[in-house]
Design a protein that fits this description.
With 590 residues, the protein is an alpha/beta fold. The protein contains 22 helices and 12 strands. Helix content is 42%, strand content 11%. Its cofactor is Mg(2+); Zn(2+).
Length: 590
């Protein structure tokens, strides 16, 4: 009986060849052999060899597949060098539209081709989701806590978790591991972003407590080696000419006497640092009473205030020099702080200059990395977007215009903030001036000279004369209208923000769309430092009544305090007015 088809071996069938229908027994002419014995030797050998070859080939494919999968699962990065540097940059409030706005502005003012891009564009890495633990729209405090601790928290939290417990930061862990550490900002050094790396309080409005912790009066002692920025008023005792503290604590004196800080408070002190060659650490440089002016204004006061790029270059060299003979490198956080403020007041002219300055600082860091003998990476992102910026504007009652006009921004040489402060000063100094004369003065000295607008409407001038304290928003609206730049809010938005990087070992882990906490966790993992151990130490040592600010913040009032401290235009603009009073930038500037 012949075997069934399912019994057949594919290559070696034992079934005898079928007899032709016209064959008869013994008929040699048909070539039919009734004997079912195996075929001649050579034929049988060929089929055997083919079978063995197929078996070996199949086995080889299986082995290769298993080896490939095992290799992918067990592949390790090249061994990391012991010494390394990490530079983390934060573009506070900069969303994707800010890049488009600034790129086109730069192309216009320098007559560049349409395919010219910013340094940031050339180092695009991914995007980040920004929500906080209690809102889809984060503030800078919760955003920076995600970066510093790698944890979500509520809006206004300064490196504390939703259960009001402190969380260890990457900067604190780096210092404990032997790294040098630094903070560089263009805002108040006690503002939310820098505060989250070196302090722990329940709400961001506790600037006085933050200042003390930043210089070392906290549960971990001193954790920062270098601080450059503004916010001098929070370090001086109440009652002195330059103070904004609510108590009479002299933080500068405490920093110098108890924690050995070297201190500088002006441009001359910054210049003495010689680009980082002459820095005695720990070094505290507070070069502005509150915020460093917007770059569009600061460039006219370069003899008073250092720029972000200057402070960045100085910090890099100072930290490089301080770690030359060390087995460990450094961790440096650099913030382009006032991109956010330009978004809050909806000032596109101020914003493009802030982004360009941040882009310049980014390029300086890349150049430093290229020349450094120590493994160094740069990671950069934003905590959130501010202003709901759009490179389009449809005027009420008008058809859409498929264009926006960078020329309008190029004609401005002052920020709306600066012009509003000049207006307020003029009104104080000329209280009896008629409205007609005031409008003429505003048009000539502020609108034409400051914004480059020669077609101001009477109702715009009337609004400025009637409400000079609202001048910041009126001036910003005037230039936004001429440039056809739109805004949806004076606060933050929930849009995803960009991630940038120099590249390097392990940085592919934050490619693509990431949660902001993923970035924070990457920072401490790359440095190989233990933030968990710092968290345990903080919880064991912290006097919550002192270091978290609970002595001045009753727990039942926390929600109200948090709601009232979330940043907005008035959070810093009104504080700026209050703190400055009749204090001017210098040479007639506020």
């Amino acid at each position: 009986m012949s075997p069934s088809p399912s019994d057949r071996t594919p290559l070696l069938s034992e079934e005898p060849r079928r007899r032709p229908s016209n064959a008869v027994d013994g008929d040699d002419e048909t070539g039919y052999d009734p004997d079912p014995s195996p075929p001649p030797g050579p034929f049988r050998l060929r089929e055997t060899l083919l079978f063995i070859w197929a078996l070996l080939a199949t086995a080889g494919v299986i082995v290769l597949a298993v080896w490939s999968q095992h290799s992918r699962q067990t592949r390790h990065e090249p061994s990391a060098p012991e010494k390394r540097n990490l530079i983390f940059m934060v573009s506070d409030g900069m969303g994707p539209a800010s890049l488009s706005l600034t790129r086109s502005f730069r192309q216009h003012i320098h007559d560049l081709p349409h395919n010219d891009t910013l340094t940031l564009d050339q180092n695009f890495w991914g995007t980040s989701r920004t929500r906080s633990s209690n809102s889809l729209v984060t503030d800078s405090a919760a955003g920076a806590t995600a970066f510093s601790c790698g944890k979500k928290s509520y809006n206004s939290a300064i490196s504390v978790t939703p259960d009001y417990e402190p969380c260890g930061t990457v900067l604190e862990a780096a210092k404990r591991a032997g790294y040098k550490t630094g903070l560089v900002v263009t805002t108040d050094i006690t503002d939310a972003t820098p505060a989250c790396f070196a302090s722990h309080v329940l709400t961001r409005s506790m600037n006085d407590d933050i200042a003390l912790q930043e210089v070392g009066d906290g549960p971990l002692g001193r954790v920062v080696d270098l601080m450059l920025g503004g916010g001098r008023c929070h370090f001086l005792p109440n009652g002195t000419d330059d103070s904004c503290r609510l108590d009479d604590t002299d933080v500068v004196s405490i920093a110098q006497s108890q924690f050995n800080w070297t201190y500088a408070s002006d441009r001359a002190g910054f210049d003495d640092l010689d680009g980082g060659e002459n820095v005695n650490m720990p070094f505290l440089g507070l070069f502005a009473h509150y915020n460093v002016p917007f770059e569009i204004d600061r460039r006219h006061m370069n003899h008073i205030y250092p720029s972000l790029t200057e402070m960045t270059r100085t910090a890099l060299r100072a930290l490089e020099k301080a770690t030359e003979d060390s087995d460990q490198g450094f961790f440096l956080m650099i913030e382009g702080s006032r991109i956010d403020h330009a978004g809050h007041i909806n000032d596109p002219a101020a914003q493009v200059h802030e982004v360009l300055e941040y882009d310049n600082a980014f390029e300086i860091v890349l150049e430093f990395i290229e020349k450094s003998d120590t493994e160094t990476i740069l990671v950069a992102t934003s905590d959130h977007e501010t202003g709901g910026l759009s490179t389009a504007l449809q005027e009420p009652g008008q058809w859409p215009v498929y264009d926006w006009f960078p020329k309008a921004l190029a004609q401005a040489n002052s920020s709306a903030e600066y012009l509003a402060l000049r207006l307020a000063k003029h009104v104080v100094e000329a209280p009896s001036e008629s409205k007609k004369d005031l409008k003429k003065w505003i048009n000539k000295n502020l609108v034409i000279a400051g914004l480059g607008i020669t077609d101001a409407l009477d109702e715009e001038l009337e609004a400025l004369a009637e409400a000079p304290l609202d001048g910041t928003y009126i001036f910003a609206a005037m230039i936004s209208l001429r440039a056809h730049v739109g805004w949806s809010t004076h606060g933050h938005s929930a849009v995803d923000v960009n991630i940038y990087s120099s590249g390097g070992r392990g940085v592919d882990k934050i490619r693509g769309n990431m949660e902001n906490t993923d970035i924070g966790n990457f920072l401490h993992e790359w440095l190989d430092v233990d933030v968990g151990a710092i968290t345990k130490e903080l919880k064991a040592k912290a006097d919550r009544a002192k270091h978290l600010g609970a002595d001045r913040l009753l727990k039942e009032d926390l929600a109200a305090q948090v709601a009232g401290s979330v940043e907005g235009p008035d959070h810093w603009m009104e504080q700026q007015r209050m703190l400055n009073g009749q204090r001017w930038y210098g040479n007639g500037e506020w």
